[in-house]
Amino acid sequence: MTYSIEVKNVSKKFDDFVAVDNISFTVTEGEIFAFLGPNGAGKTTSIKMLTTLLEPTSGSVILNGFNVALESDQTRKSFGIVFQDPSLDNDLTAYENMEFHAVLYGVPSSVYKPRIVELLNLVELWDRKDDLVKDFSGGMKRRLEIARGLLHHPRVLFLDEPTLGLDPQTRNKIWEYISNLNKKEHLTVFFTTHYMEEADRVAQRVAIIDHGKIIASGTPIQLKEKTKSATLEDAFLALTGTDIRADNSASMDGMRIRNKLWNK
Amino acid sequence: MKTIYILWLRQLKKYFRSKQRMFASLAQPLLFLFAFGYGFGSVFAKAGDGNYITFLAPGIIAMTVMFTSVFSGIEIISDKQFGFLKETLVAPVSRFNIMLGRTLGGATVACIQGVIIFLITLVAGFHPAVSGLYMAFVFMFMLALFFTAFGTAIASKLDDMQGFPLIINFLVMPLFFLSGALFPVTGLPKVFGMLVRLNPLSYAVDGIRGSLSGVHAFSLSFDFVILAVFAFLFLYIGAELFKRIQA
Which residues, listed in sequence order, are joined to residue B112 by a DSSP beta bridge? Predict the structure, then answer.
């Protein structure tokens, strides 16, 4: 079996705070994998470490066969990412954002021109291609970001809360595109979400992270059976508890803000 | 190479799409040009130094280039805030090339602004030496590279859009006033003259003025060497600090 993602004993410490504590997991090629956890559990920090943006304090990450720490350029060419926060240039048009990305990733114009047409049609934005992104709605921006993330034919697509704040129509559409791409291009998908029913419906396998540790993993059915729950949401609550861990998330937010102030 | 080009092109597109920014950043140099140019013109002539507009215009051109380039650093901060910077930092492109593309873009925009001001000074009565245009442009571009890199260095360390103009004004205003853009640097009080000589901007002003008006305090080759050294030094510092930005 070929793995798209192999994470071995990865930890990340910020000063004295352990954001990610010795996690290990694998994602198989062509799999849709959901990475779930309460706020501040370490999801975004983990994604940053998987995508070369943050160096782990210890442990190793192999992505598409590349060592993320040592072969960052090859790694970067091999995945696409949709960040939690928008990352488009609002002063450029949809097409220009796509073209910028293609050139940055070294995609030749003979390849990217038809690919942009294909992807913008897929996310139903082709007729808006010459409009400035600042005039787009949140859902349109998200769709454009997904199209952009796929432009350089990545083998893994990372999606950090891709459907946050979107209406059910857009959310369904987005998962429809992603499921189709997963089948058609054999794309591995790694995503985080707080909508458990989405994870239940879309993901083939799930890992749950809490307090920086992976506390459970398996298929949604396995997790539901293990916790004797009817839904994945109940299973999630059974595993992570119903408390809103205010103390922890407050310190996490503090850490995030500090981190933003000093490192951004 | 293509990645540097697309980053450069992005800066230019954003510049041409933001007409307000283009006009707003010309307002201050125009104010200086007209207020000082016409206000001090007669005093300057009486002191035996000739036509003040001829003296002042190159200083105002240098001022425009310097302010536009250093303020282009704010685009790095806005890219941080609007998330676009992450898109470039996660791409398989070296940080150095990203920084270089952005800096060349910012420097080009600053030179365009400088040329616009130059054309306006012609209307205001400036008669430059046509033979010096080419050399003046070389000085403008080096000045632009130097200060765009300077802005990049500062923006790399800051996250705050409000703080950037404050810090820049604190650093750049003294450089401007101590550069000889507004007054001749010969015959100044000793300490003041020293400060002018320590100020790299003085050599850019002197170079542009020497090329266009034929009046200069230092030799043009000396101006060139000093400016080149500072441009490269700050490109290096800017690149190092830009590399350390964490997404």
Answer: none
